Amino acid sequence: MAAQEFNFLLATDSYKITHYKQYPPKVSNIYSYFECRRKKGSQFSEVVFFGLQYLLKKYLIGQVVTDEKIQEAKLFYQMHFKQAVFDEESWRKILEKHDGRLPIRIKAIPEGTIIPRGNVLFTVENTDPEFYWLTNYIETMLLQMWYPITVATISREFKKILAKHLKATSGSLEGLDLKLHDFGYRGVSSQESAALGGAAHLVNFCSTDTVAGLLMAQRYYSCPMAGFSIPAAEHSTIISWGRSREKEAFERVLEQFSSGPVSVVSDSYDIFNACKNIWGDKLKERVMERSQDSCLVIRPDSGDPAETLIEVIKILEECFGCSLNVMGFKVLPSYLRIIQGDGIDLRSVDEILQKLTDEGWSAENVLFGCGSALLQKLNRDTLNCAFKCSYVESNGKGMDVYKQPVTDPSKGSKRGRLSLRRNSDGFLETIEKGAGKPEEDLLVTVFENGGLVLDYSLEEIRKNARLRDEEVNRILHNHEQELLHNGIH
Question: Rounded CA gap, 385 and 249, in Å?
């Protein structure tokens, strides 16, 4: 059921209030679609579809039009426009005829689907010819799908990079789902952004400190606990002991969390001194007493990420030793790992892991935390998300419509009713102009006339979005070819 305090009538761009006056006479159907447009040279060639179910459950299900909300909207728009442009009559008809439920149908690909850019992701149309204007009235809200789609996509790109290096240096993908920890809660614009972005990351990983994302996955995607964390120190819990007692601060953390993994930020003063003389000397025995299940995770948090991490791992090797794994790469003792959470984005993760590889270290040694690059440094143009009308019916006749700006061909839109199919080569493609076969269409009805038709669990979504073996093999092959091209053996 949509939130009672939320007024759907006020959840649109101002100018859309006037659009019912602008469509041609006797229009009965407006059909629109959402896509992530292709863009030449873009960093991302495919996207992860996620987040629609939350928007539907939170804002659109059930009675969203009431007498009180109509009155509120009428007064608001009169003040806003300084003239009577609000279509009170139509909203009252929706209340009377449909009990305030939206006469809209939304068809979408299953959440978690990996799909090349330039394809239809979902379509929207009115189910009652009187309310044709409603299709694009809800564009404002539905276009906000750009955010969870973009976060889920970036998160999965991180996963590809991590999988590439982990497989190449360890021979397996064990622990991959915990390799990228969401540090982004404090860096986003709102609680809802944290929830949507945090949940989008959880499509690909099980490691997070963003509680809002876990709650969203629980409440809207039927997942009791989607992600995990460990006790960890922050600078305040270390520097509150004073500079001369940094060793005591570290020791206190070890004592308080002796039975499970624990992370300790160690750069409050001198990360290299902390690793060599405190962890590697004064507290060495306490560290070595721990096991793989209660490992110490040292966190650098400043300086050049790659240079600092490599220096830290060399110091830890001197103090604690290392072994070689089945691929011949060095691994720290199982009771000791490093997490790098400062300066992390797609480029830096790849660079750090490649430099570690060049120095003979396995990716097993390192975990990553990411904040703003995961949840905040992105916008609607990152994936060129767009919502456009492609078909209308007037006087009982259908017409395929489109835009084709002479000044920017990349903003051309699709035509007619759309379907999505997998072609004979196994690739997803959008069929335009109503030419698709219904039995081949991968778009399924998820919302109709105020009700949710399909309810996906996070488990199903994760299965759809998982990295497949052939995908990992292709990534590894491309990586090897790149190394050969660059003269690295």
Answer: 48
Give me 274's structure tokens.
């902390």
Please name the helix (run of DSSP H) or strand (run of DSSP E) that holds residue 103, with its range, or none.
none
Instruction: Give me 369's structure tokens.
Output: 């935390």
DSSP 168-187: HHHSS-TTGGGSEEE--GGG
User: Looking at the DSSP assignment, which residues form a beta bridge with residue 364?
Assistant: none
Per-residue pLDDT of the chain (489 residues), as tens digits, is 666 789 999 999 999 999 999 999 999 999 999 999 998 888 999 999 999 999 999 999 999 999 999 999 999 999 999 999 999 999 999 999 999 999 999 999 999 999 999 999 999 999 999 999 999 999 999 999 999 999 999 999 999 999 999 999 999 999 999 999 999 999 999 999 999 999 999 999 999 999 999 999 999 999 999 999 999 999 999 999 999 999 999 999 999 999 999 999 999 999 999 999 999 999 999 999 999 999 999 999 999 999 999 999 999 999 999 999 999 999 999 999 999 999 999 999 999 999 999 999 999 999 999 999 999 999 999 999 999 999 999 999 999 999 999 999 889 999 999 999 999 999 999 999 999 999 999 999 999 999 999 999 999 999 999 999 889 888 888 887 777 777 654
350-379 CB burial, b ≥16 within 10 A, e <16:
bebbbebbeeebbbbbbbbbbbebbbbebe
CA gap 164, 144 in Å, rounded: 32
Both tokens of 41, joined, read 């040279």
By residue count, the chain amounts to 489
Do residues 34 and 142 lie in contact, with contact meaning Cβ atoms separated by under 8 Å?
yes
The pTM (predicted TM-score) of the whole model is 0.96
CA distances to 73, 244, 270, 319, 346 from 276, in Å: 65, 16, 10, 7, 30
d(CA 218, CA 241) in angstroms, rounded, equals: 38
